[in-house]
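Notes, Module 5: Reading structure tokens.

Key idea: the token line is not a picture. It is a compressed description, and you learn to read it the same way you learned to read a sequence, by spotting repeated patterns. We will look at two proteins. The first is printed below with its tokens.
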Amino acid sequence: MARWSLVLTAAMAAGLLASPVTDANAAAKIPVDKEAARKEADAKQLVIAVLDVQLVMRRAAAAKGINTAMEARRKAFEEEIAAEREVLKDEEQKLRKQGTILSPEAMNEKRRVLENKISDLRRKAEQRRGILNRAFTGATRKLRSEIAKVLAEIMSERKITLTLARKAVLVFDQRLSVTDEVLKRLDENMPNVTIDFKNPDAK
């Protein structure tokens, strides 16, 4: 009986010792998630930068040039519309004075003509505003495109993997900012932008 007890005890001991080896072999057979491992490695190599786009759009030489040109053209348009409006006011005053000497039919015809001129002037003013808006949009589109090119260049040079907009970041280390460098290169590459007022919808 003692002999069988010793054999059983030895067998149990052998089984306990063999279990870790068996578990290790089973773990070795579990496939490794290569995609997860790659993502983890990429995360460790992540290099982040921050760009204040709004600041660049305010301080860039080209942006200031756009604003100056737009203001000058807007002022010219307003003066043109104001001058034509004064002409129509004069016509309206003259028409009122003629009310006592013109027949009702003639008075109605002249009034109809004047109202058409007023409507035409309103449409003209709306068209001018539309031209200004589209011209501004086209010019800023060119500027933003150049900003993207400059940023891509800096990211490539510095091995930056992700750039965040300043407005999306609450607090950050200023050493992550590439705003000054983008602004500097932008002024060198695009000191001004040509604004097309005649064909504002051109890409």
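Here is the second protein, with the sequence above and the tokens below, as before.
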Amino acid sequence: MSEIYQRYEKPVLNIDQQLELLINQGLIVKNPKRILHYLCFIGYHRLSGYFRTFQLQNISEYIFKKGTAFDSIISLYIFDRKLRLLVMDAVERIEVAAANQRR
């Protein structure tokens, strides 16, 4: 059985190049060191799902809507993270309660 692989054409970007890409796409950057911190510890690809809320597709590339600042993106990420933790806490409590009901 032969396996078919799709060739990945995009170049790998380091953290500084990722920041440069975001700036070139129109992201407002007030504190580059802060953004580099988040890119390093959260990751570009994890944050990219949150970028899409603030982007328009321009032919074959994405550009940020006018006035989009990184603070908007990271605020959405933090809200989503807190919500995810609250939901998981509730799910755990329901699991424990359901397990105790069966005893």
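Summary for the second protein:
- Residues 70-101 form the longest helix (32 residues).
- The radius of gyration is 19 Å.
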